[in-house]
Amino acid sequence: MKERLQLPDIEAIPDGRLAELFQQDDVRQLLHITYGSVLARYRERLLSALKEHEERYWELLKEHFRRHLEPLREV
């Protein structure tokens, strides 16, 4: 188990590439452990973005589950 998360310098990432952060395990882990505080602060913005991009959200969610469940088919 890692002792510390390896997080990029967010100030060095162009806005157009911020979404790529969600493909990094350590960034996702940080979101998992801070989800409650993030949701409390940005709830309306998050819900608005999900509604605006609902179809894309479902596509990404299905892909996320597929990646996690596919290895279990071999068990």
List the topology elements.
Layout: H1 25-52, H2 54-69
Could you please describe the fold and organization of this structure?
It contains two helices and no strands. Helix content is 59%, strand content 0%. The two termini are 24 Å apart. The longest helix has 28 residues, at 25-52. The chain has one domain (13-72). The chain has helices at 25-52, 54-69. The radius of gyration is 15 Å and the shape is globular. With 75 residues, it is mainly alpha-helical.
Rg computed from alpha carbons, rounded to a whole number of angstroms? 15 Å
| Protein structure class | mainly alpha
Number of strands: 0
The SSE string, one letter per element, is: HH
Strand content: under 5%
Helix content: 55-70%
The parts where pLDDT drops under 50 for at least 5 residues are none
Distance between the termini: 24 Å
Whole-number total of structural domains: 1
User: Main β-sheet, in a few words?
Assistant: none
Tell me the number of helical segments per DSSP (H or I, 4 or more residues long). 2
Shape: globular
| Average pLDDT number | 90
Task: Provide a quick synopsis of the model.
This protein has two helices and no strands.
Notable characteristics:
75 residues; mainly alpha; 59% helix; 0% strand; globular
